[in-house]
Amino acid sequence: MSRRPATSADSTPKLPSEATPLSVLQRFRVVIRTAQRHSQWIERQSGVTGAQLWAMQELAERPGLRVGELANLMALHQSTASNMIDKLESTELIRKERTATDQRVVRLYLTDKGSDLLSRAPSPARGVLPEALRMLEGDDLLRLQTALDVLLGQIRDMDEGFGMQPIPFTE
């Protein structure tokens, strides 16, 4: 269920009366601080980072994922996901298994210790921002993505003007 702007008698969503660059920037800051605060709370409560807990949730729902598949589900670069997996494996929260038919293929599974931690961990395991985005209706999500794509395009143009390397969409 998504939260929509208040509606008038004719059921047309009322948009804010004014949007300024600073009012939008303020909202970005609130979103970022909220996500960071939730991730820090997750870590204090469970002993793993918010991203690690999210990865564990994905493995609980889809046992046997490969690192690349997990990276795609979390919109991470494969090397970032691989480093996170190594840390989770070293703390015995997940295990890697190679398939008998192809030793290059590594599958990921939660250990009993990982399942136990996940069952006691605070919710949402994926974090408040990914979960809130999942709750948006399709048309709202599309509008948000379109507006962010325009913003990212402007930032890229500015970066190129400064001779900076553009930041890719994934980590």
Class by SSE composition: mainly alpha
Question: Taking Cα atoms only, what radius of gyration do you get, to the nearest Å?
Answer: 20 Å
CATH architecture verdict of the largest domain = Orthogonal Bundle
CATH topology of the largest domain: Arc Repressor Mutant, subunit A
Could you give a short description of this structure?
The protein has helices spanning 21-46, 50-61, 67-74, 78-90, 112-120, 128-135, 138-161, and strands at residues 94-98, 106-110.
Describe it for me?
- With 171 residues, the chain is mainly α.
- The protein has two domains: 39-125, Arc Repressor Mutant, subunit A; 136-171.
- The chain contains seven helices and two strands, in the order ααααββααα.
- The chain has helices at 21-46, 50-61, 67-74, 78-90, 112-120, 128-135, 138-161, and strands spanning 94-98, 106-110.
- A two-stranded antiparallel ribbon has the order 1-2.
- Helix 3 packs across helix 4.
- It is globular.
- The two termini are 28 Å apart.
- The mean pLDDT is 87.
